[in-house]
Amino acid sequence: MTTAVYEPERFRSPEYLDIIDAAESSNRLRIADDCLKAIKEQGESGYPHEICGLLIGRLDAEGWQISEVRQVDNLNSERAADRFELDPAAYQRIDRELRGSGLEIVGVYHSHPDCPAKPSPTDLGSAWEGFAYPIVSICDGKAASLRCWSVNDSGNRFQEIRIQEPA
Ligand SMILES: [Zn+2]
C-alpha cells in the first residue's frame, strides 16, 4: 500500500482534531487478512462513493474478534461521496439471522474516498459505544490505508484500535 493519502484541509481543523484521542484504546481488533482484504476491495469497487458494511463476531475482554464482514447498501445517494447511511432493513435482517449463533454485529466499517482513514465529526455523531469502526481510505480508486476506531467511555472522542491477526 504505497498510494499517497489525501488529506483535505478540514481533517486538520480543530473540529476534526478534537474528536481524536491521543491515547490508543487498550482493546484490539482481531480480524483475518481476508476480511481486511474484502473491506479494501469493496471500498475500491464503490469508489468514488462511500461503501459501508457490518463486522460480525464477538466482543470479549480483549476487544473484538471478527469472523465475517458483510457489505450493506449505503442509502445516502445525495452525498454518497462523503456520507453513509447504512440500510437499516439489512441491519435488522442480519441481526435476526445471527440470533442464537453466538455471533453478533459488533462494528460498522466504511470507506473514505480521497480522504484519510480518520473519523469525521459526522462519524462520531452516528457512532455507538462498544462498536468497532474500521475506516478504509481509498485514494484514486486504490485502498491506501485502513485504521480502526472506537468511541471512548465519555463518548466525545474516537480512540484508535490496533488491528491484529486472530490468534
Ligand atoms: Zn466517515
Automatic annotation (TrEMBL):
PROSITE patterns the record matches: MPN
Domain MPN: 28-155
A Pfam family assignment: Prok-JAB
InterPro entries: JAB_dom_prok, JAMM/MPN+_dom, MPN, VirAsm_ModProt
GO BP: proteolysis
Molecular function, one GO term: zinc ion binding
Keyword terms of this UniProt record: Hydrolase, Metal-binding, Metalloprotease, Protease, Proteasome, Zinc
UniProt feature coiled coil, ranges: none
GO CC annotations, alphabetized: proteasome complex
Keyword Ligase: no
Signal peptide: none
Official protein name in the record: Proteasome lid subunit RPN8/RPN11, contains Jab1/MPN metalloenzyme (JAMM) motif
Protein species of origin: Mariprofundus ferrinatatus
Lineage: Bacteria, Pseudomonadati, Pseudomonadota, Candidatius Mariprofundia, Mariprofundales
